[in-house]
Amino acid sequence: PAAKCQAKSNGRCNNQIRKHEPKVVDMIDVEDIAEKAAFCRCWKTKNWPYCDGSHGEHNKLTGDNVGPVVVKK
Ligand code: FES
User: Fold this and answer.
1) 23-61 per-position pLDDT tens digit
2) What residues are paired with 36 via a beta bridge?
3) Is the dihedral of CA 39, 52, 3, 65 positive or negative?
4) pLDDT recorded at residue 8
5) Distance between CA atoms of residues 52 and 38, nearest Å
6) CA dist., res. 62 & res. 11, Å (int)
7) Among 23, 46, 60, 72, which one carries the catalytic annotation?
8) 23 classed as catalytic
9) CB of 32 within 8 A of CB of 4?
10) For residue 6, what pLDDT band results from cuts at 50, 70 and 90?
11) 36 phi/psi in degrees, rounded to 5
């Protein structure tokens, strides 16, 4: 499965998020975070820049072990 994933992505991490932009950058004001927020690091979420749990399926398919970064206020 890992080889299949690599072939599909051409070595890219990002296959779906704001592909029209030269570089995806997000600025989050810590004051806008209620208590804590989980930010995606696998690029598979449907709720960018937040983690939606999609890393679980990615890890299962590829043998990867990625997960979000959680910011606590
Ligand atoms: Fe990407 Fe959770 S969905 S880290």
Assistant:
1) 999 999 999 999 999 999 999 999 999 999 999 999 999
2) 72
3) positive
4) 59
5) 9
6) 13
7) 23
8) yes
9) no
10) low
11) -155, 160
